[in-house]
Amino acid sequence: MSRIMDIYRQLQQNGHNGATAEEIGYALNIDRSTASRYLNDLVKADRVIKVPGKPVKYSIKQPDQKEPAERNVIGAEESLQPLLETGMAAFLYPSRSLPILLTGETGTGKSYLAEKLSNMVIENSASTGDIPFIAFNCADYAQNPELLVGQIFGIKEGAFTGATEDKIGLVEQADGGILFLDEIHRLPPSGQEMLFYLMDKGIYHRLGEATRERHADIALIGATTEDSETYLLSTLMRRFSVKLEVPPLRERTPAERQALIEHFLAEEATKMKTGLAIEDDCRQAFLSYDCPGNIGQLKSDIQIACARTYLRYLNKEESKVLVKLEDFQGDSQVKSKYRNLNKPSRNIELSHTAEESSHKFPNIYQRLDRTSKNTQINHKDGLQKVVLDYIRDLTEKYKQPVLSQESWQQLIDDDLFQVLQDTVDNLNHILPYMIHKSQLYVIGLHLQNYRNHLRKNIQKEPIPVMIHPNASYRQAARQIATQLQTEIGMRLPQEEIELIAHFLAPEQRTAPKTAEQELAVILVTHGNSTASSMAEVTNYLLGNHVIHAVDMPLHISSEDTYERVKQAINNMHDIKGVLLLVDIGSLITMGDTIQHELDVPIKTLSSVNLPMVMEAGRQSLISEQTLDGMYQEAKDALVTFMENDQQQTSVQKKRLIATVCFTGEGAAQLLESWLENQLSTIDQDVLIRAVRIDPVTKDTSVLTDLRDHYDVIAIIGTVPVSIEGIPYIPAWELLQNEGISRLHKLLEITRNSVVPQLNEHIPNDEIYDLITQGLQEIVTYLNPRTIAELLQEYIPPIRDYYRWDSNRELGMWMHIGSLIDRILAVTLKQQHDHFLSSIPLDSQTILSEQEEHLWNPLFDRITKTFHIELTNNIKRELVKLSR
Amino acid sequence: MAEQMKVIILCSWGATSSQLAKKVEEAAENRGIDIDVYAGGTGEFKDKASQYDVALLEPQVRHLRKEVTKVGDQHNVPVELVDQRAFALMDGDKVLDQALNMLEK
């Protein structure tokens, strides 16, 4: 944090009374004249006023002098006040604004805040000319790092294949104004370095434009989720002198949440162009439910509730638009808590502040109105479909948090997890550290499995009582046991309670993102991003930032590169040695020179390739490793790689994923079955093996044995183990998209080059043609095209809901097609009884509300189109088969 | 081959599989191959697995593959998924090839 910001903060603390330069200087341990100079800068920037007197006092400009834009921001006077003030001060920093980094969870409103801040600055600025504000989400191009960097900095014609003309970058568009980069961690290291250079010197290059330096003066705002910060280069992190953390919804005040709800409801009312009211119990539900997707989710949940309400109103089931508790789609616990209260309601004023621009979503109500006017037949279906589509769109948008939560919910019972959440406060009192949510998941997974065993009455090997030496963990474990018993009547035997203590031991806590590295690996290669891409892959796969990349674009001289490598080494503290991985030319000898200059042992390996980088990264994480040892292993990796190439066909070990936990039958087994369902057809060869890790000895010999006989591609579980050469993925990480994609990457790179010809993956858009042809072969009464068209329209949401792969989708098309043909046949021949006895009808499966919503449009349409009756038994059978 | 080969195609309750089985039998007849092709649901496979030489699983019951494979393993009956494309096109020839391949292994 820069000096001037410290002073501003200090003044903030002093409040209305202000402070003299001397007092400030004293508080911050700087001399008076320096303090005074900064204070006067702040006065010039209009953030601080002088209070006349002797000595002169300074105080923060008070909110009543604030700009109108600020007043529209909910929470501007409460949770967000320090953020907005610091943000403004950073912008108005004399001579050149300070770059701001916004961090916070998904949906906390980082981009909203960036936009508001920018508006305030623009309003506040003395300049009369246009100040550009450019906002860009790096995730939009995350699949293609080159193009992403090109978007931001511009592209010169011919920079890469497909770059057919010069392209202006966002930096150029934002020159003289503000550039907001959301999800900035998606920038590849090379892009981050370019950004650093721009922030530092105001200079940048378009992609592929080596000779021409371009200048831009921009105020930069970056945003990232906190857990992604590790993907940012430390140099870049440091360059953001102002870091603001946007608080999650749960830390905002109730009044603010209330105001947000009012605001979103008012927006909806404006879109409906009619009065809107909400029942108090429903409002209560919105106020209190757990909303992990933060404000973004709150908004879309409100939109969904309003859409449902409006649908009911259009269907004339009700005379006014009243949002009821049943429209709220949050968790049922909150619902039941508020049900049965008396039902007063309150009206919502139409919003006057909502501008058109804030309606990023299509206006659902117009869509509904239009549908209701245009279609006479199928009236209800049409409307239903519009609403369903809309809900799907919204859910898509907030898929991330919802998804990861769902996958947990599939695994852990609600009530069980609820108890665990309830224990948090108590546990934090007992434990010497704050418990992390991932630990709750781990314990939840274990207990869930214990419970499943009880339910199914499975006798299992009694586990020995293993006492953890630390008393506070044992006490915490007993606390959990007590709450489980009192809240849901789940009684744990002694050995289980003692086992939980082991789960609570701190080594169980989230594996640190960056392990202590005593040996550094620096990768230097020619080319714009060769080094950084290789480093990215390796760091990603090893789950650690172990490889430091220095790219050497052709226009950069070897002297410059030399300096950058030296700089990189200088920035590393407490290292025992450096392994330099380079490709060719002058880079090979660079290490020796630096070694003399810096007095750090350096070894260099040339002709680097990916296996070497991976091996070096892996070795650098082994605590006992020496520089020589690491050098040798990395060098061997090159050789083994080439040998492997030749004898690849002779020995082909089977791929295996090991799941681990303390019992081998708790979380490990749950994960095992979960993984089995996750594997796609091409990965069917992967074996999954649950392994027990003894909590006391932590013996991993089973895993090393497995490694000898199988190609172990990953160890997943609740007990961190490190087996050389095998990446470990903590279980909780798998339930977030990042973790899943890491697993998929690992599967992908270990796949045999020969993918079995059979069962190849059929793209979804081919299904229509294939099925039309296939049905032709087997049906008698049905027109294949009619049913295929119908399925084409109705299956996708069903497919997405159950997450069918193309295999199952294809199978279901065929199944439904042939089923309908059969029903047609018996209907025509009037042999109903005969037919009904020939298929196993299902009278037990119960459709969830969501499933009803999903299937009914399809069922209705089939009934109407083919004039046949689908009995409930048949419907149920279909749904059962789909799950 | 001493005994006649027996192939079973499995789906949820034998509807599409009986159609496909018919196609495969036709294909076999055309080529003069002596083979019996049955159709059935995955539920009944458990009890009858030992009667067959190979089992083919239709894609809509792909999620039951582990279960079915386990049963198959107990009775030494190899289990594979019907090739998707062949299934989609109800291509008896291709599915016949697949079954023959499995028998050779």
What does this structure look like?
The complex is a heterodimer of chains A (883) and B (105). With 883 residues, chain A is α/β, with parallel strands linked by helices. Chain A is 52% helix and 11% strand. In chain A, the strands form six sheets. Chain A has a five-stranded parallel sheet with strand order 5-6-9-4-10. Chain A has a four-stranded parallel sheet with strand order 15-14-16-17, sandwiched between helices. A four-stranded parallel sheet of chain A has the order 19-18-20-21, sandwiched between helices. In chain A, helix 24 (587-598) links the parallel strand 16 (577-582) and strand 17 (602-605). Chain B has 105 residues and is of the alpha/beta class. Chain B is built from five helices and four strands; from the N terminus they run βαβαβαβαα. In chain B, strands 2-1-3-4 form a four-stranded parallel sheet, sandwiched between helices. In chain B, helix 1 (15-31) packs across helix 5 (92-104). Chain B is globular and about 35 Å long. The two termini of chain B are 15 Å apart.
Key phrases:
heterodimer; A: 883 residues; alpha/beta; 21 strands; globular; B: 105 residues; Rossmann fold; 50% helix
Give a short summary of the structure.
Chain A is α/β, with parallel strands linked by helices. In chain A, 52% of the residues lie in helices and 11% in strands. Chain B has helices spanning 15-31, 42-48, 65-74, 84-88, 92-104, and strands at 5-11, 35-41, 54-57, 79-81.
Present the secondary structure layout:
The complex is a heterodimer of chains A (883) and B (105).
Chain A: H1 3-14, E1 19-20, H2 21-28, H3 32-44, E2 48-51, E3 57-60, H4 68-71, H5 81-91, E4 100-103, H6 110-124, E5 133-137, H7 145-153, H8 170-173, E6 178-182, H9 189-201, E7 203-204, E8 214-215, E9 219-224, H10 234-239, E10 242-245, H11 254-272, E11 276-279, H12 280-288, H13 294-314, E12 322-323, H14 332-338, E13 345-348, H15 364-374, H16 379-397, H17 399-411, H18 414-430, H19 437-456, H20 471-488, H21 494-504, E14 519-526, H22 530-542, E15 547-552, H23 558-570, E16 577-582, H24 587-598, E17 602-605, H25 610-620, H26 627-647, E18 654-661, H27 667-678, E19 687-692, H28 701-709, E20 710-717, E21 728-730, H29 731-734, H30 737-750, H31 764-778, H32 784-802, H33 806-829, H34 832-838, H35 849-866, H36 872-882
Parallel strand pairs in A: 4-9, 4-10, 5-6, 6-9, 11-12, 14-15, 14-16, 16-17, 18-19, 18-20, 20-21
Antiparallel strand pairs in A: 1-3, 2-3, 7-8, 11-13
Helix pairs in contact in A: 1-3, 2-3, 5-6, 11-13, 13-15, 13-16, 15-16, 16-35, 18-19, 18-20, 19-27, 20-21, 22-25, 23-24, 25-26, 31-32, 31-33, 32-35
Chain B: E1 5-11, H1 15-31, E2 35-41, H2 42-48, E3 54-57, H3 65-74, E4 79-81, H4 84-88, H5 92-104
Parallel strand pairs in B: 1-2, 1-3, 3-4
Helix pairs in contact in B: 1-5
